[in-house]
Amino acid sequence: MLNLTSSVTSFVKESSVKNGLVNVSVVGSTCAITTIEYEPGLEKDFFTALERLAPKEEEYEHHKRWGDFNGHSHVRASVIGPSITIPVHDSKPVLGTWQQVVFVELDARPRSRNIYLTALGDV
Description:
By secondary structure, the chain is an alpha+beta fold. The protein has one domain: Sandwich (Jelly Rolls). It is built from four helices and seven strands; from the N terminus they run E-H-E-E-H-H-H-E-E-E-E. It has a four-stranded antiparallel sheet, covered by helices on one side. It has a three-stranded antiparallel sheet with strand order 1-6-3. 19% of the residues are buried.
C-alpha cells in the first residue's frame, strides 16, 4: 500500500482547478485505488480482511487456466476498483481528516504500474 495523498494534493494545486473533481486511476487488473486511514494497524487489518474475502490459497479457475496463481489478486482488485473520483474545493481535494488516497498492489509478483491523475473543473 502506497499513500498518494500528497501527490494528489500537489497535482490539484498545480492544475489550477479551483472547484471540480480529481480522478486517480491505475492501469492493471491486479491493483487498486481507494481511500483509508493510512496507519500500520489499519493497513494490516485491510490485508487481513482481503485474505478472508479472497484467500490466496483458494483454488481459482484463473489459476487452472493461466497457471500464474494470482486469481485472488484479480478478485480483490475487482472488489476495490481501479479508480476514485474526489471533489475539489478551493484547489484542494476534499478528504476527511484521516482519509488518505492509496494505491494497493495486489498481485502475486512485482509489477510496474502507471497511475493517472486527471483534474476537471473551474480554474
